[in-house]
Design a protein that fits this description.
6-stranded mixed beta sheet; 4-stranded antiparallel beta sheet; ATP hydrolysis activity; Rossmann fold; nucleotide-binding; 3 domains; ATP binding; alpha/beta
Length: about 270
């Protein structure tokens, strides 16, 4: 995906929201976009999604794109399952495959019981889960998430963290905006900040090899495949597992473990200062 000299403004005489944006991202990347409110983060994602057109420059993006907007329109003439199946069919899936993927994501986000409920009657949190599910079922080459975690409960946030990591591991490109600065800490491969209409690359927090580390001992039927900080896993003699992670990523790791399904029992947490 590539943006070259991209500018965007609303109206012929409006101020430039984005100016001379240069950005090249590779498949398998997981990239965070930062910036103050109103800085142009959402506009950038809309350009990548093909919803907005650039006033200047060129945008080269994969044909297969999926997008979770900052605000999901609830006034849609579908129930939750029918909406997901409808979008699956639009994306070229067979009816059976669209139904399979819809049911998979309804179950994964714990909303199977609302599958037949009209979207307009869903709670805000449940509606947001449907918004996220419609993007994930596409298994798109480019996944764009604009504050997609907002409104989700802790368990659903953990599921979305895992799903995003899985999409990147499968070769998808993920670009996300979130107000939590620790979101996907230890998993993101790049970060950029929008300031005064210009996009700047910013360094990711780095945990040095000799820095403090945290040891978390857990008991679980199964651990999530993708965990923040990519901790080293050490099976213990009593069946528990010790996770060693840089302390900079410990809070994100603990949040993911607390939201995991099947449940994970955290036996102990200890910081080891190198």
């Amino acid at each position: 995906m590539r943006l070259a000299g991209v500018g965007k403004r609303y109206g012929r005489r409006g101020p430039w929201v984005l100016r001379e944006v240069e950005l090249t991202l590779r498949p398998g990347s997981l990239v965070r976009i930062e910036g103050a409110n109103g800085s142009g983060k959402s506009t950038l994602l809309k350009l990548l999604a093909g919803i907005e057109r650039a006033g200047r420059g060129t945008v080269e993006a994969p044909a297969g794109r999926a997008y979770v907007p900052e605000r999901f329109p609830p006034a849609l003439p579908f129930d939750a399952r029918a909406y997901l199946c409808h979008l699956g069919r639009i994306r070229g899936l067979s009816a059976a495959e669209a139904r399979r993927r819809a049911d998979h994501w309804l179950e994964r986000f714990g909303i199977t019981g609302y599958a037949g409920t009209p979207i307009g009657r869903l709670s805000k949190g449940t509606c947001q889960k449907v918004a996220v599910a419609q993007a994930l079922l596409a298994e798109a080459e480019l996944l764009l998430l604009d504050e997609a975690w907002t409104g989700l409960d802790q368990s659903a946030r953990g599921e979305l963290d895992g799903a995003v990591a899985e999409r990147a591991a499968a070769g998808g490109l993920v670009v996300f905006v979130d107000h939590d600065p620790t979101r996907l800490a230890g998993l993101a491969t790049g970060a950029h900040r929008v300031a005064d209409g210009v996009l700047h690359e910013v360094p990711l927090p780095q945990a040095g090899p000799d820095g403090p580390r945290t040891a978390v001992v857990v008991e679980a039927e199964a651990l999530p495949e993708w965990l923040p900080g990519r901790p080293e896993r050490k099976p213990l003699a009593d069946g528990a597992t010790r996770l060693d992670v840089p302390s900079a990523h410990a809070d994100a790791l603990l949040r993911r473990l607390l939201a995991a399904h099947p449940p994970v029992h955290i036996r102990s947490v200890r910081e080891d200062n190198a």
